[in-house]
Amino acid sequence: MTDKKDKYYYITTPIYYVNGAPHIGSSYTNIACDVLARFKRLDGYKVKFLTGTDEHGLKVKQAAEAKGVSPQAFTDEVAAMFEGALAPMNISNDDFIRTTEERHKKAAQALWQKLEEAGEIYLDKYAGWYAVRDEAYYTLDELIAGPDKDTMIAADSGAECKWVEEESYFFKLSEYTDKLLAYYEEHPEFIQPASRRNEVMSFVKGGLRDLSISRTTFDWGVPVPGNEKHVMYVWIDALTNYLTALGYPDTSSEEFQGFWNNAFHMVGKEITRFHCVYWPAFLMAAKLPLPKTVFAHGWLTVEGQKMSKSVGNVITPEELISRYGVDGARFVLLREIPFGNDGNFSHENSVNRINSDLANGLGNLAQRTLSMIAKNCEGKVPHHADFNEEDLAVLNDAYGVIESVRAGLDQFKFHEALQEIFRLVNAANGYIDAQAPWTLKKTDFTRMETVLYVLAETIRCLGILVQPVMPDSASKILDQVAVTEKARDFTCLTKEHALKVGTELPVPQGVFPRLELEEKAA
Ligand code: MSP
After folding, report:
1. CA-closest residue to ligand 1 atom 22
2. What are 281-321's pLDDT values in tens digits?
3. Cα–Cα 20 to 30 A to 280, which of 70, 203, 337, 459?
4. CA 411 to chain centre
5. What angle do CA 514, 515, 516 make, to 5 degrees?
6. Inter-axis angle of helices 364-376 and 471-480, to 10 degrees?
7. C-alpha 221, offset from chain centre
8. What residues contact residue 147 under an 8 Å CB cut-off, 6+ apart?
């Protein structure tokens, strides 16, 4: 839960490895964060929304080698693909960070020095199993036998591990076991959802070992200050990005303090250990406050299977947009899968969901109402008489639903927040059917005007409410009820901002086309 009096909100995605092109996995996280960022902006917060790319480490270096290009040329190319995938999905990030940037090198080295000054780093020898794919060290109890004697497999992720032995700096993570456990106890909101919190807590309860935080066998990384034979372990480098973007090592600015005290990290569930164990320990060691929440969401599968190049079921963001439109894509990803759980993406479910909620639900409500106003009320916001109980029930719902939407989003329950909004859509469609303005047109024209007014006003509120999830469609809806740009934030969800009788409305146009499964998504 954010503290509204602070009015600052800092939301981050993981920074993505640039070893391959973006697929809908990263779009999923980006969209979720974008919805939160847009929601908070409309709710009066100063928002900073950060995403970017994680460009160092052996995995990226090996991907560059496989292509026969230098790591820098390779990362420049792939980072541009990640950055380029943002605008087409309407991602409203305020900054895009690349770990190869100078500002980041400076921040990562400054954090390292803080840890060193605090006496939390020492030089020793590392000997153990390392998975390049996960850029992670594993202990024997986390491994199963591999295809040959030189290879082990990480039981959780399936990544291949090789034995490495080299001089390395270590962070005294073992000294943080109790401090972390105490922190998790006192701040149940720090790791969400609760299932992930339990996993992390039981891992930490097992006792922590000191963490190897530098490598000497390759040089594609941030040099360790004072000993350039070493580069930093890619995760200490990567995690620092969240500070870099706020201007670290300068912590004195209002921007740094406002945002860092209200920081929310969204991550996939496979990287909780890094964000919920290593990161808070580094921050404690550097005497910096911890982020408010790390929320770990589940994995997207496609038609029931893990997305993979070999299965041939990788969905690109472009494909999703071409089938469903940007707003349709954003909507189904968040409406179909309870956030936090693993979830399956299916074309059939997506088409059904878009048709039922958008085309038949919100789209039909707007189309029926606005075309009746165009035909019968000279295309102007109609007059209304006093509202009766049925009218007030719909209007009060339209003004009040923001409370439950806000509560849902503060708990990262996107699907529940959307359910609330579409409950209002259904209620409004129920109201139009029950009131039957097409019949009133012949029997009681004044009552018809009132009913159409109530519906247009409800559509105004719905347009405002769906902006975070479907910014383009919301803007079309709000244009059709002549709501100015300035009157679109959540403070306008009150009767004081209600549509003014007699306001001229543009010619109505359909916003959500119906999709055909056979043609579009067989
Ligand atoms: N570079 C690290 C993160 C460093 S953050 C300081 C990393 N990168 S990654 O490219 O592997 O991206 C992982 C993230 O991409 C996941 O945590 C998740 O946000 C997103 N996803 C990638 N594939 C996904 C799915 N199939 N489903 C859901 N999210 C997915 O780990």
Report:
1. 25
2. 999 999 999 999 999 999 998 877 877 767 778 888 999 99
3. 337
4. 13
5. 125
6. 20
7. 27
8. none
Between CA 26 and CA 220 the distance in angstroms is: 24
What is the sign, positive or negative, of the torsion defined by CA atoms of 18, 21, 23, 27? positive
Do residues 460 and 481 touch, judged by C-beta distance below 8 A?
yes
SS3 assignment for 267-294? EEHHHHHHHHHHHHHHHHHCCCCCCCEE
Whether the CB of 432 sits within 6 Å of ligand 1: no
DSSP 464-501: HHTTTT-HHHHHHHHHHTT--GGG-SGGG-SGGGPPPT
Residue 54 Cα: closest atom of ligand 1: 1
Q: Which atom of ligand 1 is nearest to the CA of 268?
A: 17
How many CB atoms are closer than 10 A to CB 308? 11
Q: Which atom of ligand 1 is nearest to the CA of 299?
A: 27
User: pTM of the full predicted structure?
Assistant: 0.96
Pairing relation of β-strands 305-306 and 121-131?
A: unpaired
Beta bridge partners, 264, equal 11, 293
Beta-bridge partner residues of 153: 144, 160
* Cβ of 17 below 6 Å from ligand 1: yes
CA of 299 to the centre of ligand 1 (A): 9
Q: Please, which residues bridge with residue 154 across strands? A: 143
Digit-coded pLDDT (tens) for 398-451 = 999 999 999 999 999 999 999 999 999 999 999 999 999 999 999 999 999 999
- Annotate 338-392 with DSSP letters as a single string: -TTS-EEE-HHHHHHHIIIIIIIIIIHHHHHHHHHHHHHSTTBPPP-----HHHH
Nearest atom, ligand 1, residue 266 CA: 19
Question: What local confidence, expressed as pLDDT, does residue 304 receive?
Answer: 78
At 215, the amino acid letter reads R
- The answer to whether the beta carbons of residues 269 and 166 sit under 8 Å apart is no
Q: Give the CA count within 13 Å in the CB-facing half-sphere of 266.
A: 32
Which residue bears the tokens 């640039």?
A: 18
Does ligand 1 have an atom closer than 6 angstroms to the CB of 267? yes
**Rounded Cα distance, 269 and 342, in Å:** 9
User: Rounded CA gap, 178 and 14, in Å?
Assistant: 27
Please name the residues in contact with 87: beta carbons below 8 A apart, sequence gap of 6 or more. none
Burial of 3 from C-beta contacts in 10 A (0-12 / 13-18 / 19+): exposed
DSSP string, 166-214: EEEEEE-GGGGHHHHHHHHHH-TTSEESHHHHHHHHHHHHT----EE-E
